[in-house]
Design goal:
By secondary structure, the chain is of the alpha/beta class.
């Protein structure tokens, strides 16, 4: 059983005039970080709202932890951080977590034990009695993550969890998300910060105009097949005629030397010939692109195909 599943999920607004989602089939496995990507208006927010039971599909179905999205039990096993969340600013951090915990059905004894631990996890342990009107945006974001964890959920839905957080804070959030994944939780991210998504995500899915156009593991998307960066000491001019002899494409890009080979056997033959020439090999590194590059390429390709 996958923690999150959708089947032919379709949503129209305005009496069927506006298509938000069309035939989305999605499975998200357990104990992983999954990120939903897409340009503005792609349907990401609508999909998340349906999974949270805030709105319902026009057609198709969705299940959370094996239960239909209408199940109150499945909602109790979910934590959620909205992108533009708001807390009453006359409360302090401890009170925010206590009241949200009570609304989630957590008993007082458990909350008194859990709240200090959560505040420590999000680096707010010294601010528990301060009214949150004094909090920076980054502090409010970290408090929001603690709020999403207050009921010890199996699934976390986080909408832009690192928004407004400085680089050190983003690293702390990444470390926290990885810890939660290792504890067996499934984390569903919606974020525009693709560099952050690339660092923490196991899988990503890309929505365009309400349709699922790509889904897979991050490593599969950013690796460039049979392309490697080669590092050798000193000048590398001798590589060009050498590669021509072996029918290997050699490119110089941003100060790096990239070779294109047919397969692993071709690569090993190239390495053997380098050694025969007594050339020192410092490194041969599989070449990768950024997730942002892949995302833009996919979106532009789909737009080109639609014309």
């Amino acid at each position: 059983m996958n923690p999150i599943e959708t089947n032919d999920l379709t949503k129209y607004y305005s009496g069927g005039k506006v298509q938000a989602l069309e035939g989305v089939n999605l499975q998200v496995g357990g104990a992983q970080i999954f990120s939903l990507l897409g340009p503005n208006g792609a349907g990401k927010t609508t999909l998340m709202k349906i999974l949270l039971g805030v709105c319902f599909p026009t057609r198709g179905s969705a299940r959370i932890l094996g239960k239909e999205i209408s199940s109150h039990w499945s909602h109790s096993r979910v934590g959620y951080l909205a992108e533009n969340h708001r807390f009453p600013d006359f409360l302090n951090a401890w009170q925010v977590l206590y009241y949200y915990g009570k609304m989630s059905g957590v008993d007082s004894v458990t909350l008194k034990e859990r709240i200090p631990r959560l505040l420590d996890q999000v680096k707010l342990e010294n601010w528990e009695k301060e009214r949150i009107k004094k909090f920076s945006k980054g502090m409010l974001q970290r408090l929001g993550i603690a709020q999403a964890l207050i009921n010890d959920p199996d699934i976390l839905f986080l909408d832009e969890p690192t928004d407004g957080i400085d680089p050190i804070g983003r690293r702390e959030v990444r470390d926290l998300l990885l810890t939660l994944k290792n504890q067996g939780k499934t984390i569903f991210l919606n974020s525009h910060l693709l560099s952050e998504v690339e660092r923490v995500s196991d899988e990503v899915a890309i929505l365009k105009n309400g349709r699922l156009i790509q889904k897979g593991r991050v490593e599969e998307f950013i690796a460039v097949k049979d392309t490697y960066e080669i590092k050798i000491p000193g000048a590398a001019e001798d590589l060009f005629p050498f590669c021509q002899q072996l029918n290997i494409e050699l490119h110089q890009k941003n100060g790096k030397y990239l070779i294109e080979v047919d397969d692993a056997q071709h690569l090993n033959h190239f390495i053997d010939r380098l050694r025969e020439k007594d050339m020192i090999i410092q490194a041969i590194i599989p070449h990768k692109i950024t997730l942002e590059d892949f995302f833009i390429e996919v979106i532009e390709e789909k737009e080109g195909n639609s014309n």
